[in-house]
């Protein structure tokens, strides 16, 4: 479980949003629409992250259709402190090493 959590939170794009979803669901179960409103994210973005969290056995849906409620799995709930540790050790959002920051681009422009 630790490897999955590390990859989902610290090792891939979207980890910050997934972490926010996990933290919110830890407080109380919600549906995707409620999560989108609370986290100020697009509904489709929330659904994408929920699908990844379901696949990795971190979140489980209850019910059906649009009002489906999402809970943390019992297994993940017992590992929540480990998630907090991973989250606190990884303060920076994922960045792709191949992309240049604005500062890098400005410095490159100054050389030419």
Short description:
The chain is mainly alpha-helical.
Overview of this structure, please?
The protein is 61% helix and 9% strand. The chain is mostly helical and 112 residues long. The protein has one domain (2-111): Winged helix-like DNA-binding domain superfamily/Winged helix DNA-binding domain (Arc Repressor Mutant, subunit A). The protein has a 3-stranded antiparallel β-sheet with strand order 1-3-2. It starts with a helix and ends with a helix. The chain is globular and about 35 Å long. The chain contains 7 helices and 3 strands, in the order H-H-E-H-H-E-E-H-H-H.
Arithmetic mean of pLDDT? 81
Largest sheet: 3 strands, antiparallel
CATH architecture heading: Orthogonal Bundle
Poorly predicted runs = 93-112
